[in-house]
Specification:
Layout: E1 12-15, H1 23-28, E2 33-37, H2 41-44, H3 46-57, E3 61-65, H4 74-87, E4 91-96, H5 98-112, E5 122-123, E6 133-137, E7 149-153, E8 160-164, E9 172-175, H6 185-203, H7 214-217, H8 225-247, H9 252-272, H10 276-288, H11 292-307, H12 312-322, H13 331-348, H14 365-373, H15 376-380, H16 388-400, H17 404-407
Parallel strand pairs: 1-9, 2-3, 2-4, 4-6, 5-8, 6-9
Antiparallel strand pairs: 7-8
GO molecular function: alcohol dehydrogenase (NAD+) activity; metal ion binding
Protein name: Alcohol dehydrogenase
Domain Alcohol dehydrogenase iron-type/glycerol dehydrogenase GldA: 10-177
């Protein structure tokens, strides 16, 4: 096997408690006019208010859009882009959770390349650099601060769609775990579970033929040596610290480790991609109007069970990273322990154990299975081949909350 790796990341990643205070100096490298994309939390969190004020005190002109809506409907993006165009900023800041960072990416895109967003759906369709973008996460989960993708909701389509291009990677990711202190328990759990799902799917995704054209024609190139490094760091950090961060939101060491894990999970899946859990969640989310992180995490043990036979060594390593390996355990046994460990962690932090707990009805299972197959890139990135019958088997198991039918495969 050829050693092959791909890495795409911001020009700078600043990580650590207090790093938010570097923001004025970071901004000045790109200009003096800033457009901040955020949501209503901006005015409610003193730390975020102080951050915006620090820019103005440094002589930087600031305009703020705080109307970001979760799942990013196109109308929201268009509203923000129109305000940004009138302000004509030198740099865009995405301040908040994944939707705030994604809308900042799309505003930066539309300022540089005005067109219908549908022109950019898919991979490598952004024609060139976008307005400089700084991402500042206030949750630890999506990894959007380092990824080349923005996800939005198009009312003309049944599920969410993505725009993927290396041009969308922020120039700076400023990750200060102190900004997650006010994140409530449920959101900490859902975001962290999302990050762990990113890492596991990146670590176990398809390994593609490493042709010279691969990274030039596909944003997501599958499992590779560099993405594996980031995935291991993410899994280790989240396995050890996510539950503690959920149970004690004032434990800043745990919060820092979870944010560190989410960052590395983003660096992993930003090149390797995700797979079946994400393909299924998109229609599940559309049907149930539930959080993305809750959906992919609820699905993860079932997808792992389905994929186990194709990724026994990787799952065994996940078990070791979770600390559940015993001397003499075979890889086959460890691969099962890995699934149990992920399932147990998600149970501990309150992730739903089935799609029915998310609110999916039995009558919606068929629709979800069909629509999940339409996420071709994600389906093709799954290590175990998927067809309509296999997809239905996963969804049926996840709906009932019983992995046994998949374990028999």
């Amino acid at each position: 096997m050829n050693l092959y790796g791909v890495s795409r990341s911001p020009s700078q990643i600043l990580f650590g408690a207090g790093q938010r205070h570097a923001l004025p100096a970071v901004v000045r490298a790109y200009g003096r006019r800033v457009f901040i994309c955020s949501d209503k939390r901006l005015r409610q969190d003193p730390a975020l208010v102080a951050l915006a004020n620090s820019l103005e005190m440094a002589g930087i002109m600031v305009a703020i859009y705080e109307g970001t809506i979760a799942e990013l409907p196109i109308s929201c993006i268009q509203e923000a882009a129109a305000l940004a165009k009138a302000f004509n900023p030198d740099v865009i800041i995405g301040l908040g959770g994944g939707s705030c960072m994604d809308i900042a990416k799309l505003v930066a895109l539309l300022l540089a390349h005005p067109a219908e967003l549908s022109n950019y759906y898919g991979e490598f369709r952004v024609p060139g650099p976008v307005r400089p973008l700084i991402a500042i996460p206030t949750t630890a989960g999506t990894g959007s601060e380092v990824t080349p993708v923005a996800v939005l909701a198009d009312p003309a389509r049944a599920t969410k769609v993505g725009i993927s291009s290396p041009y969308l990677i922020p120039v700076v990711a400023l990750c200060d775990p102190e900004l997650t202190r006010s994140c409530p328990k449920s959101l900490t759990a859902i975001a962290g579970a999302d990050a762990l799902t990113h890492a596991i799917e990146a670590f176990t995704s398809v390994r593609k033929s490493p042709t010279p054209e691969l990274a030039q024609t596909q944003v997501f190139v599958g499992k590779n040596a560099m993405s594996d490094v980031h995935a291991r760091v993410a899994i280790s950090a989240l396995a050890a610290h996510l539950a503690q961060a959920v149970e004690d939101g004032n434990d800043m060491q745990a919060r820092a480790q979870v944010m560190y894990g989410a960052l590395h999970a983003g660096l992993a899946f930003g090149v390797a991609g995700t797979a079946a859990a994400h393909a299924i969640q998109y229609p599940v989310g559309a049907e149930t109007h539930t959080a993305h992180g809750a959906g992919v995490a609820a699905l993860m043990p079932y997808v792992m069970e389905f994929n186990r036979r194709s990724r026994i060594p990787e799952f065994a390593e996940i078990a070791r990273l979770f600390g559940v390996a015993s001397v003499g355990d075979s890889d086959a046994l460890l691969s099962r322990k890995a699934i149990d460990a992920v399932d147990a962690l998600f149970q501990r932090i309150g992730i739903p154990r089935s799609l029915s707990e998310l609110g999916l009805s039995d009558g919606q299972v068929h629709v979800v299975s069909i629509q999940a197959m339409q996420a071709t890139r994600l389906v093709n990135n799954n290590p175990e081949a998927l067809d309509e019958q296999a997809m239905r088997r996963i969804v049926d198991a996840a709906q009932s909350g019983d992995r046994s039918s998949l374990a028999a495969l």
